[in-house]
Each structure stands twice: as C-alpha cells, then as structure tokens.
UniProtKB/TrEMBL annotation:
One of its GO terms (cellular component) is cell outer membrane. It comes from Rhabdobacter roseus. Residues 120-240 form the TonB-dependent receptor plug domain. Its main location: membrane. The keyword Transmembrane applies. Belongs to the TonB-dependent receptor family. Residues 413-967 form the TonB-dependent receptor-like beta-barrel domain. This is TonB-linked SusC/RagA family outer membrane protein.
Length: 1011
C-alpha cells in the first residue's frame, strides 16, 4: 500500500475512534430550584459520583453537564441544603431537581461578619440563635433575647423598668472606662445601642435596642473569638452580635397575625416594718441613746395610728399587650417582607409606661442574571413615660421603701400631701405617690435603620457587593415637675415654682461598605473562599437642652411659660472610621481548614500618630471525623478541633479625648476661658490579644452535640482617666494605663432525648470566666461607686483583683456582750479606720448559663427555660438605710431589724439600734450577700390546631399559647432581686442594689395565625 493509502487508512481509523468516543458521551441539562418556594438555586454543585467531573448551576439555577453513556449517578450539593443523589438512565437527558433545606445543626448557615458559611466549616467561636428560641418570651429588645441562650454571653436586666437598660458582656469585661458592650449589627448596619434619653434616673438608663422589634428577627449570631470578629477590627474586642431580620420567599404571599396580652408584677416586694413595729424600734433606739422618745413624738398608740403600705401605694399590676401583622412572599425575581407592630407595656409603678410602634420592609429583586438589588427599612417610634427611681433622693420606688408608715399619701379630702403640708416626713416633705403621679417625664424616641445594596456577578464565583446604610436616632425629652413635687416645691423656697426641662438629641451614622468575594475550587479537594473590602463610617451627634422655673401656675408646664429660663446648652460632635479588611479561608478535602483575617482601621478619635491600627487573626481546624481511621465509626457524625489567635480593638471612649480642651470660667466676677483637659497625642487603641481552642462534636446523627471552648484574652493599653497630682491644676489625664485579662471555659450541650411521636430536646450552656486586672499605671487603688462611713468607696480597681471588686471593712459579727459590730482590725492598731479597708468580695460569678427543655407531641409544645448564676456577690446597699442601726428616724426599716441585738447574750448578725450611732453602720461586708440564683426565666405552653380545622376556618395555621417569665427564683439573697444593678452597665461598680426596682414577672396568653 502506498503512502497515500496508508494516510487515508489512518485517517479513517482516527475518525472512527472519535465517533466512538462521541457515541459514549451525552449531555444532561436541567434546573435546580428550592423546594420551599421554587426559586432558582445558583451555585449548586453537580458532580458525577466517583469522579471529579462536574459543574455548577448558573444564576438562574440552570446547569449543563457532559456524562458518559449508560447509567450515571449525579450528586447535587450546596451550603444549607440537603444533598441529593439521583441515578440517571441512558435515555434521560433532562433532570430538574428540587432541593430542601438541611435542618441538621452541621448544615445550618452561620453569618460570619461580611460572609456566611455552613456550621460544619466554622473554625471560629460562634453561637447561633434562631428566633424560635425566644418567640414566646415577651422580650423588649434584641439584647434581652440573648439572655441565657449563649455560652460566654452574660446578660443582666438592670431593673424592672420597661425599656430600661440591659448589661451585655461577652467573655467578660475588657475595659475599665471604655464601653464593654458588644458591637450590634442589624442586616449589615452597625447600630447605636446606648441610652435614648440624656438623663439617667438614679443610675438607670433607657435602652435604644428596646426600640427594635425582636419579632422581626430571623436569627442572631454571636461572634466571640478573634477568628470570628477580627474582621471588625477596632470595634470587635467586646464581641459582635449579628442580627438578621426576616425576608421574603418565592411563594404565595402569606400573612401572619400575632396577638399577645398579659399582666406584670414585680418578682418580690421588700419586707418592711409596719407602723407599730417601727415606733417600737425607734423608741428603743432613742432610749439606747439616753434620750426620751416622747420628745421625738414617738408615742405608741398615737404615732402609729396610721399604717400605710407605701409599696402597695405606688405599685400596680401592669398590663402588657403586643400586636403584630406581617406579610411575606414573592416570585423568582422579587421577594418582600413587610411587618407592623405595636407594643404597649404599662409599668408596675404608677404613671410608668413604654409604648413602641415599629415597622419593617425588606425587598430583594433580581434585575438580571448577574445583578441583584435589595433594600431594608426598619422604623420604630417609642414613647417612654418614666418615673424617677432607684437611688434618686426623690425616687418613687426608693421613696416608698424609705417613707414612714405612720403617714398617708392623701389627706381627708382625698388630696395628695405635698411640700408645705404639716407633719409630713422626709426632705423636702416628699410624697412618693405624688412623685409618681404629678411630674411628666416623657421621652419620645425615633430609630430608623435603612440600607440599599447591589450584588453584581463579575464572573462565575466572583461577586461584588456595595451597600449604603444609615442608622438614625432622635430623642425628645419633655419634663415638668410641678410645685406639689419634691424638686418643684424645693425650688419654690429659692424663688422657683415648678421646674421644667426640654432636651433634644440626634445621632446618625452613615455607612458605605464594598466587598469583593471569590470562590475557587480545584480538583474538588482544594477550596478557597476569599474576601476583600473597605468600609467608611461617619457618625454625627447633635443635642441641646434648656430648663426653666418660676412658672405662673402648675397649669403652665412648658418652658415658654417659665418666669426664669436658665441658660441652656447645645452640642455637636462627630467621628469617623475608615477601614480596609480581607479574609482568606481554605479547606483541603473538607478535612483541614485554615483562615487568615485582617483589618486596618483609622479612627478620628485618636491623634494623627496613633490613628491607625492593624488587627490580624489566624485560625485552623481539623475535621477528625473525615480521617480514614474514624470514617467507619458510626457513632461520630462530626468531630472537629479548631484554634485561633489574633487581635481586636476598642475605640469606644467618646470623641476628642486626645485633644487638650478649653472651657468658659468665671473668676472674681470676670468671664473668660481656661484649660479644661490636658492633651495626650499618644492616646491609642485598647488592644485585646485573643487565643481560643475549641472542639465541636456531633454524635449519633446529631442526637448529641457538644461544643467546648477554652480562651485566654489579654487587653492592654487600657483607656482610662489616670489620676495625676492636683498640683498640675488637673485631676486626671486620659491615657493608656494597664492590662486586664479574661480567661475562661465555655460548654454547650444539645441533645435529642426522644424523637418519635414525642420529641424532647435539651440545651445547656455553661460558662466560667475569670477576670483580672493584671496591671495599672501605678499600684494605687482606684475607687468607684458610693462613698461614706470613712471608707473610700464600695468598689475598688486594683492589681490582681477582678473588676467589680468590693472594698470595705470586714464584718466579724456582733459582740453578744455589748451588741456592737466587730470589724477586722487589719493593721492591728487597735482602732477601726479607713486604713482597715480591704477586699471583701467581688461581683463576678464563678459560672453562669442557661438550661432549656422543649417537648412537642402532636400539636402540643412545651418549653421550660432556666437561667442561673453562681458565686457572685451582691452589695445590698439598701440595707445601709433599711437596717440602719444608727436609726436616723427618717426612714422605715426592713424586717431584718427584728433580729437586732436587744440584751446581753443575744447572738445575732444585726447590731443594736442606737440613735445617732454611726459605728455600727460602717460600710462593711455585713451588707455583702451571696447573689447566686436559679431562675425559671420562661415557661411556655402552646397548641397548634390540626390542619383540617384551620383550613375550614380559612386559615393556614393557628397556634395558641400561654407564657410566663421570671415565675420562680431560688436564691439566698435577702433583697428583692439578685440580678439588678443600680449603676446600669457600670464596669467598675457592679453588683450594687440600692433601692433598685426588681424585675417583673409576666403572665400572658397569645395567638399566632397565618393566612
């Protein structure tokens, strides 16, 4: 055969091989959609079983894949969706797939800063809380919804005031004077979470987070270690709480109506002496002082002719009601969620009420196969009718506790006693009932959260997102105290008649963030997820106030009618933050996980040389359950070891602190200006070094899940007003003075105890955090809190002790021979002086947590939630007045006074009562008590009507429920509530109960109906 023939022979053979290969392959096409709403699912992975050959669904959920001839098995998988295996026969060329959400814990989607991932791929310490966990708890704000739900998160409600302050700490206190509250983010918007009003009432603030409706929340993710929160850099040291609100789905529009109504009352009333008991006690105290009680008007059968229960007089049974209606739906291009709600809570104190009107609108629209746009709007209006409380001299609750029972709030004509009334107790002739009913302390709050975003797919797996957002806050305070009240009447004695205050404040934050994300998969074993972005934040605040007095009558209550308008003030400040951040996550074979995160922040709150800070973190994880030696161990569903190390910061100290400032002064009758604050150009960030090791385990297909973390955090460069010698002309200078450490262990256990006709699950979280002041600029003890009785303060900040340390004399008991207090003579000089002050305890718990059981059977569901704290001390500072063995005769006394020493040989812990004696009432550990408690935080019981019943009523689902909060408390604390804290949110002065209104217990019923 010649060359020409051989060429054509080879050519024909080659073409035959190609034809044969083509005959052995075919193309399969299809579309992947969500089972819940038929929406397209872009990004779903489609792989031929046993090979690395695969593809990914496009933006419309469509895919195209070449497969061998014959029967093949295709695997469909995506984050948060249950994977599917579909066997395709040789004659089938179109395969459309419906994919359902995977409800297992390992496949839940977790928000991790500017991105999201599956729970099984998380290598940081993150706790996720779904809205179902707090749906039946009538919480006011989103921070309160976290209480007892997450390991490492300590939340205390400072008082029982509606809309009042909430203390939130994640892994302890990291700062002395800067904010210790975490960063709250709602739908990508960092929000203002401070007080709404400009005045705190006796140490108690109101709460901006109470304006946001928790019923609009879909989920909450708490970021706790550097791996999770370093992406927030200078704002992440105190933890980050990411709130995701509800959004629409691609399905028929559903409408949900929710109605709740109940009653409230305080968890415990203080036990006080009646009129006869008090007169007997006061007569004894005066006689012990060698004086005649009759000369003080203390005559048995006469003085105690009236017996008023002042607590009963100022309290009532409150009414709580909440109504919400929402609609959600959409199609494959546009989805929406719309809601409106009203919450009205009548406080247990007279004239105290909190009302909130809120609405939310979330819209998502797919403009094209590459472009998606979205918008969110959350608007809330509130009206808070406050009353003075806690440690106010003229507070309602505090005044009622102290008022003498042998006086009445009303005269014989039914009129309130007021200033100038004869024979009325207190200063200045104070009537707690009048103080509740007559003044007007009204705060109007407005909060607007809004944002628009656009997502553009530049190419497959490369996306760009830009978002513009605003957090707008406005408050107006309208206050008037008539001449018949303590302050209004007191001012009358110096020329005033009534007293009015008007305050307005506006704070808004503008945010622009731009994020580029890229996902790369190589050989189905190497996976890269990268993120690069920048963020610009600007905050502006404005406020003004004015006060007036000498009103023509109590019928004229606004400043315009005041005879004397006192000088007001106005203020404006601003701050900015510019940031660049990036993140790289890599996993090999779904087995070895690595992460690198960094943020570079520049803040206007610091001088030019200290303005920028760098906050990196490294993390790694090992999914041990994917190793060959464990793959055949059926007990283990997932086992992962993870660790992280990195740095975060805290710049929340207020504006212009690094600058030297001047202020107006008056000297010898002449006005001028003088230095007000020393500059410190070296003022810099607080920085927290964080190390974390954790283990995640899921056993028996999720029947038992365990998460354990051990962490060690060190915060240095503490921002603090450091005391300096008075000879400088200044008392302090803002500086970076020391270090604080937090070391702890967190444990979360979730079990499915039964999952047949009856489903029973249990969740337990337990935390131990050890806080310690590692170093200060000098070793001088710094005091915070109250002072008195020759002792420098109730709380001390000193090296080697935790924040919240109590300082005072050590009480050793009562001398049975004399009835006088015995104190520890620390220096052995034979005298009790301030030099004998020492550490007497601390407010930090040894551990805290929450315990929840949920049971469902057919249409019934039951939830029992306990919250607990152990090992913390609470200073019952009220007892310095209520068990006042110095007996000043101006205040009622606790029933604890009945245990007082009365004669030689009495063994008791309450010294004798002697009028004018102060020695027995020195500030000491006598007033320090065990503040541990176990509280039944919530008990709820519900019933969902059978489907055929609700359909007959033209409704989709109907659920009826009853709920109770703070129903029962086990504690050794003798006060009314071991959880309260007079100085709301204080870091240094924690755990003080000084006439603080206890929390309320709520009993309510409700119904949820969907159409």
């Amino acid at each position: 055969m010649n060359k020409f023939g051989r060429f054509w022979g080879l050519w024909l053979l080659f073409m035959g091989l190609i034809h044969s290969a083509q005959a052995q392959e075919r193309v399969i096409t299809g579309k992947v959609t969500a089972e819940s709403d038929n929406s397209p699912l872009p990004g779903v992975s489609v792989v031929i079983l046993g090979t690395t050959n695969g593809t990914t669904a496009d933006a419309e959920g469509n895919y195209r894949l070449s497969v061998p001839s014959g029967t093949v098995t295709l695997i469909y998988s995506f984050i948060g969706l249950a994977p599917q295996e579909i066997t395709v026969g040789p004659n089938r060329s179109v395969v459309n797939v419906l994919m359902a959400e995977n409800t297992t814990e390992l496949n839940q989607v977790v928000v991790t800063g500017y991105n999201q991932t599956q729970r099984k791929d998380v290598i940081g310490s993150i706790t996720s809380i779904k809205s179902e966990k707090f749906r039946d708890i009538p919480v006011v704000g989103i921070d309160q919804a976290l209480q007892g739900q997450a390991a490492g998160v300590q939340i205390s409600q400072s008082s029982g005031t509606p809309g009042g302050g909430i203390s939130v700490r994640i892994r302890g206190n990291t700062s002395i004077s800067a904010s210790n509250r975490p960063l709250f983010i709602v739908d990508g918007i960092p929000i203002y979470d401070g007080p709404v009003s400009g005045r705190d009432f006796g140490g108690q603030n109101d709460n901006a987070l109470a304006i946001i409706n928790p019923q609009d929340i879909e989920s909450i993710d708490v970021l706790k270690d550097a791996s999770a929160k370093a992406i927030y850099g200078s704002r992440g040291a105190n933890g980050v709480v990411i709130i995701t609100t509800k959004r629409g789905r691609n399905n028929r529009t559903s409408i949900t109506a929710d109605v709740q109504r109940g009653i409230t009352e305080i968890v415990k009333r203080p036990q006080l002496l009646n009129a006869s008991q008090l007169v007997e006690l006061q007569r004894e105290a005066v006689q012990n002082a060698g004086q005649d009680p009759n000369k003080f008007g203390l005559i048995k059968g006469v003085t105690d002719g009236i017996d008023t229960d002042w607590i009963d007089a100022i309290l009532r049974r409150g009414v709580l009601q909440q109504y919400q209606i929402s609609a959600a739906g959409g199609d494959d291009r546009t989805r929406f969620y719309l809601s409106g709600s009203v919450r009205d809570e009548e406080g247990v104190q007279l004239n105290n009420r909190f009302t909130r009107y809120s609405g939310a609108l979330n819209i998502d629209h797919r403009a094209s196969s590459k472009l998606k746009v979205g918008a969110n709007l959350n608007l809330s209006l509130s009206q808070n009718d406050r009353v003075k409380g806690d440690n106010f001299l003229d507070g309602v609750y505090s005044g009622a506790i102290k008022s003498l029972p042998y006086y009445a709030p009303y005269n014989e004509q039914g009129q309130l006693y007021g200033p100038g009334s004869p024979n009325y107790p207190g200063f200045p002739n104070f009537n707690p009932v009048g103080q509740a009913l007559l003044p007007r302390f009204r705060t109007y709050g407005l909060k607007l959260l809004t944002g628009v975003n656009a997502d553009y797919e530049i190419m497959r797996n490369l996306q760009f997102r830009t978002k513009f957002s605003m957090d707008y806050n406005n408050s107006e305070e309208d206050q008037f105290e008539p001449s018949s009240t303590a302050i209004g009447g007191f001012l009358q004695s110096v020329g005033g008649r009534g007293y009015g205050v008007y305050i307005t404040a506006t704070t808004y934050t503008l945010i622009n963030s731009n994020v580029l994300t890229y996902y790369l998969s190589l050989n189905e074993r190497h996976h890269f997820n990268t993120l690069l972005g920048n963020e610009i934040i600007q905050t502006v605040g404005r406020s003004s106030d004015v006060s007036g007095r000498v009103f023509p009558s109590d019928d004229f209550t606004y400043i315009t009618s005041a005879g004397v308008v006192d000088a007001g003030s106005s203020f404006r400040d601003q701050n900015g933050l510019v940031s660049f951040f990036g993140e790289v996550k890599y996993d090999f074979d779904d087995k070895y996980l690595f992460g690198l995160t960094a943020r570079y922040d520049g803040s206007s709150r610091f001088g030019q040389n200290r303005r920028f800070g760098f906050f990196p973190s490294l993390s790694a994880g090992w999914r041990i359950s994917q190793e060959e030696f464990l793959k055949d161990v059926s007990v283990i569903s997932d086992l992962k070891l993870r660790g992280s190390y990195g740095f975060t910061g805290n710049e929340r100290i207020g504006n212009y602190q690094f600058l030297g400032t001047w202020a107006s002064v008056t000297y010898n009758g002449a006005a001028g200006v003088a230095p007000n604050r020393l500059p410190n150009a070296q003022l810099q960030w607080e920085r927290t070094r964080e190390a974390n090791i954790g283990v995640d385990a899921s056993l028996w297909n999720g029947r038992l899940s365990v998460t354990a973390d051990v962490y060690s955090n060190l915060t240095d460069n503490l921002l603090f007003a450091e005391p300096i010698p008075a000879t400088t002309g200044f008392g302090t200078i803002q500086g970076n003075i020391g270090q604080v450490t937090n070391k702890g262990v967190e444990l979360t256990i979730s079990t499915v105890n039964m999952d047949r006709e009856v489903r029973w699950t249990t969740d337990l979280n337990l935390t131990q955090n050890i806080n310690n002041v590692a170093s200060l600029a000098n070793q001088d003890t710094l005091y915070r809190g109250y002072t008195g009785n020759g002792i420098s303060g109730t709380n001390a900040i000193l090296e080697g002790q935790p924040l919240g340390t109590f300082w005072g004399l050590k009480f050793l008991g009562v001398d049975p021979a004399t009835g006088d207090a015995i104190y520890h003579d620390l220096n052995g000089d034979g005298q009790i002086t301030p030099a004998d002050g020492q550490v007497i305890g601390n407010a930090q718990p040894k551990f805290f947590g929450g315990f929840t059981n949920r049971v469902s059977w057919k249409g019934f569901d039951l939830s029992v939630f306990f919250q607990f704290m152990y090992g913390n001390k609470t200073l019952n500072f009220s007892n310095t007045t209520l068990v006042n063995t110095g007996a000043d005769l101006e205040n009622n006394q606790s029933v604890d006074a009945l245990r007082r020493w009365r004669q030689e040989g009495d063994v008791t812990d309450v010294p004798r009562y002697v009028f004018g004696n102060t020695y027995n009432n020195f500030h000491s550990s006598r007033f320090l008590e065990d503040g541990s408690y176990l509280r039944l935080k919530n008990l709820s019981f519900g019933y969902t009507l059978p489907k055929n019943w609700s359909i007959k009523a033209k409704m989709n689902t109907v659920r009826l429920f009853a709920s109770a909060t703070n129903l029962w408390t086990l504690t050794r604390y003798s006060g009314t509530d071991p959880e309260v804290s007079t100085l709301d949110g204080s870091t240094a002065a924690q755990g003080i109960d000084f006439f603080t209104l206890p929390q309320v217990k709520t009993m309510m019923v409700g119904a949820t109906v969907t159409f």
